[in-house]
Structure formats: C-alpha cells, structure tokens
Amino acid sequence: MIITFFLLKNQLYGQKLFFKHLYKIGFVLIFCVKILKYLFLI
Predict the structure, then answer these.
(1) How big is the CA angle at 31 (ends 15 and 37), to the nearest 5 degrees?
(2) Reported pTM
(3) Keywords assigned by UniProt (predicted)?
C-alpha cells in the first residue's frame, strides 16, 4: 500500500515536470512563429 502510494506520488511529480517542460517548448515555438511572421512581413 505504501509502495503504490509512493509510486503514484512519483508519477504525479513526473507529470508536473513534463507539463512544465511542454509549456516551455510551446512558448519557444510560439516565439519562433512570431519572429517568422515578422520577418515575412518585411
């Protein structure tokens, strides 16, 4: 019981880190798209 709880807690923490990483990647992608749009407008 304690082991399964620990694994579940670990999994939730891993998911939090994964979503943080995904958010950073998304932010960078949006930034790149904005730069590309700006370059094409010139």
Answers:
(1) 140
(2) 0.52
(3) Membrane, Transmembrane, Transmembrane helix
pLDDT for position 36: 92
* Phi (first) and psi of residue 6, to 5 degrees: -65, -40
The pLDDT tens digits for 1-42 are: 677 888 888 888 888 888 888 999 999 999 999 999 998 886
Half-sphere exposure (Cβ direction) of 34: Cα atoms closer than 13 Å: 6
Nearest to 13 by CA among 3, 5, 23: 5
Please calculate the CA angle 24-22-26 and round it to the nearest 5 degrees. Answer: 55
